[in-house]
Design brief:
Elements: E1 6-8, E2 11-12, H1 13-22, E3 31-33, E4 42-45, E5 49-53, H2 62-76, E6 84-88, E7 98-102, E8 107-108, H3 118-136, E9 143-144, E10 155-156, H4 159-177, H5 182-193, H6 196-199, E11 206-208, E12 217-222, E13 225-231, E14 238-240, H7 243-248, H8 260-270, H9 277-300, H10 304-318
Antiparallel strand pairs: 1-2, 3-4, 4-5, 5-7, 6-7, 8-12, 9-10, 11-14, 12-13
Length: 321
Amino acid sequence: MSEETPLLPGLTREALVSLMERHGLGPLHTAFPFHPNHSEPMLLVNGEVVVRLNQKVPELPTLPWEAVVYRRLRRATDVPGPQVLALDTRRDIVPWDVLCLSYVEGVRGNTVWVGLDVAIREHLSEELGRMCAAAHGLSWTVYGEFVGFGPAAIQSGRWTEIVNQRIVRVYEQAQQVGLLSPATLDELITVLNDGDALFDTPSPPTLTHTDLGLWNVVLRQEGSQWHVAAILDWHRSLVADAAWEFAQLWRDSAELYPFSDSFLHGYKERKPLQDDLRVRQRLYRLLSFSERAIDLAQRFGTSAERTQFFHAGILRLLKPR
C-alpha cells in the first residue's frame, strides 16, 4: 500500500502514523474502516485502537466532550466503556479533531437482541438500568448542551431556561416550515408552557445519554453468560433533568430498547425515580419529537406524507395518558 493511499477520505496512512507517534500508540500495522454506518468516520487500528475523526461537524467540540464523558464515567462509576487513549485537537496533521479509544470486544446489542432468551434480555436490561443510574449519579454544575449542537446551545444553572429556549425555537421553526396547522401548533405550545412548574423543579443537573438504544450498547458473551461490555456514543449527551433520559427511551416501537420494566427495576436499585416521572416523560417526549420533526422537515422538506406523519405523532402525544 502506498504511503499516500487514503485510509479514509482525507486521512492518509502517513498522517495516521504521525498521529500514533505523537501520542505513543506504537507502530501502525493494520488499519481498517470500522462501523461504516456510523455518522463519523472510524478506523480499527492494529485490532485494538479505534480512531474517530470529527469530519461531520468539525466546528463543534463533539469529540472533546465525549472524551470528558468517557473519562468521568471510567473514573467515578462502573459504567463500562472504552479508555481514552488520545485526544488530538491541534488539527495540524489532519484538519479535524481525532479521538483514539481502546477497542471494546463484543457485538452491538441490536444485532443479537431478538435472538437472546427472554431471561437473558431481562438480566441485561436490569444491568443497563443500574448503569444508567450510575451515570445519573455524577455531579455537574450546570444544565445544557456542551457541544453547542441543536437547540440547547447554552448552559444554565436553571433547567427551565434551557427548556423555554427549546420551546421558543420549536414555535418559530414550526411556523417557518409549515409543519403543523396553527391550531395544533398553538395547542402544542400551550401544553408545553403549562409544564413550567415541573421545569422549575427538575432533578439536579444529570448526564443523560439521550440515545440509549441497543445500537449504542456493546454486549459480550462469556460462556453461557451475556453482559454489557460498553455503552458507547455519548457525543450527543445532555446535562438535563433526569427525566429527559426516559423521554428518549422507548419512543419508537420499531427500535430495539432494553425491557422497560427490567430497566427501571435495575435503575431503582441505585437511584429513586422522580415521583412525577410519567408527566415529565410525556412533556419531554412531546418537545423532543417536535424538534426531530422540524429537523427532518428542514433537511428533507415537508411532503404531504411526512407532514401527516408528524402531525399525527404530535396529536397522539398531546393526548394525556
